[in-house]
């Protein structure tokens, strides 16, 4: 059993929280000065424990175990949303740093190593999971503005680091749950079964602009009025069409011309839904398309639908899930299988290498907010559980 130091994990987390501190939370968007400072500090910590640290052209920070021909890779991300919390992403990095240190101390010169990676732009300032996509060779081109910011940060001289199937035999990511299920169940460990797929759509409403004071209600072609009715209908229809795990969000509305004294001519509603079951995603897509057909032409307003993005759901490796569950049982810790509704770098890695995720509870289910928090004892327990699972995996390679 690896001798993992829980206090060291907490110290790493608190130090990382000092980069981009805003109140009780953090603001470290990808390639921001705070993000780069955090990565450079973490690179120094990697070097201290004996990993060879490199920051590549997209901002990925990779610590390689020297002399190892095969490795278990642990990773997550240190960038944050603009109003983020102190644990989102960094939890997995703090675990990985301490597990890599403990492994090298217990097995110096072992042919199997523990590598650590801090992926760039998981949160999507430029492109969601940009760093992990680059690492897996699934990034056809850089998004607008990224190359300029990367060059300013001095990242353009280092070639992108790539996943090596001969070396990287498994990937583990630990994360706060960012939801309420573990806390509600009174359990400290979540064994992630898979990561929800996502469908995103733009629904557009084309009416006619008129004077809001002189045009009778019955004669208006009001894009906003139909948009609001449509949004309400979405919730009722999606409840009938999705699975019990389906979630959806009507996240953005824009209205033009946007004046209080002008009847709205054009409206746009951006929405998405998520589920682990591709059949449920297809059913929700079909329900949305049917609603568009039903509303199109009502009150003189044209309604159209455009897909704005999709990610296929991913199931995580069953053998590695078993290692996490066994490690929790060995520590006397209750665990439960659960899917992740949030997107993680593990979603990208799982398509190229056996992948597992471990969750620890989020207090109140809160995340992506400065009030995000997890009990210290749950953080430390999660570190021990992940260490045992990673050790068992490494010893089997």
From TrEMBL:
Metal-binding in keyword set: yes
EC number(s) stated in the UniProt entry for this protein: 3.5.-.-
Cofactor requirements of the protein: Mn(2+)
UniProt enzyme class: hydrolase
Molecular function (Gene Ontology), one example: hydrolase activity
Keywords: Hydrolase, Manganese, Metal-binding
SUPFAM superfamilies linked to this entry: Bacterial exopeptidase dimerisation domain, Zn-dependent exopeptidases
Domain of life: Bacteria
Statement: the UniProt record of this protein carries the keyword Hydrolase: yes
Similarity comment text for this entry: Belongs to the peptidase M20 family.
Family annotation (PANTHER family): ALLANTOATE DEIMINASE-RELATED
Quaternary structure (record): Homodimer.
Official protein name in the record: Hydantoinase/carbamoylase family amidase
Organism annotation: Azospirillum formosense
């Amino acid at each position: 059993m690896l001798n993992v130091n829980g206090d060291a994990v907490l110290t790493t987390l608190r130090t990382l929280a000092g980069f981009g501190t805003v109140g009780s939370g953090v603001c470290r968007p990808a390639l921001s000065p705070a993000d780069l400072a955090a990565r450079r500090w973490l690179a120094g910590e990697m070097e201290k424990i004996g990993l060879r640290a490199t920051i590549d052209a997209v901002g990925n920070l990779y610590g390689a175990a020297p002399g190892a021909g095969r490795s278990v890779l642990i990773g997550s991300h240190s960038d944050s949303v603009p109003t983020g919390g102190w644990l989102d992403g960094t939890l997995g990095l703090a675990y990985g740093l301490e597990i890599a240190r403990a492994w090298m101390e217990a097995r110096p010169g072992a042919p199997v190593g523990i590598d650590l990676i801090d992926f760039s732009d998981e949160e999507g300032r430029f492109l969601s999971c940009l760093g992990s996509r680059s690492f897996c060779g699934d990034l056809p081109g850089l998004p607008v503005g990224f190359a300029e910011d990367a060059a300013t940060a001095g990242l353009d001289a280092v070639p992108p680091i790539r996943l090596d199937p001969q070396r990287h035999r498994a990937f583990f990511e630990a994360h706060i749950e960012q939801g309420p299920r573990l806390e509600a169940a009174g359990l400290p460990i979540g064994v992630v079964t898979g990561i929800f797929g996502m469908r995103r759509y733009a629904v557009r409403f084309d009416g006619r602009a008129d004077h809001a004071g002189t045009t009778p209600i019955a004669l208006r072609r009001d894009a906003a009025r139909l948009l609001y009715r449509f949004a309400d209908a979405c919730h009722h229809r999606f409840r009938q069409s999705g699975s019990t795990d389906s979630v959806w969000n009507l996240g953005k509305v824009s209205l033009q011309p946007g004046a209080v004294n002008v009847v709205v001519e054009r409206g746009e509603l951006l929405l998405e839904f998520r589920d682990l079951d591709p059949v449920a995603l297809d059913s929700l897509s079909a329900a949305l398309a049917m609603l568009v057909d039903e509303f199109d032409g009502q009150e003189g307003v044209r309604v159209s639908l455009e897909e704005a993005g999709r990610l296929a759901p991913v199931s995580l490796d069953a053998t590695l899930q078993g290692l996490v569950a066994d490690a929790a049982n060995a520590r006397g810790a209750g665990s439960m299988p659960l899917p992740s509704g949030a997107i993680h770098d593990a979603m990208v890695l799982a398509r190229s290498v056996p992948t597992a995720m471990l969750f620890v509870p989020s207090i109140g289910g809160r995340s992506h907010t400065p009030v995000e928090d997890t009990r210290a004892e749950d953080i430390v327990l999660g570190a021990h559980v992940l260490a045992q699972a990673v050790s068992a995996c490494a010893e089997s390679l």
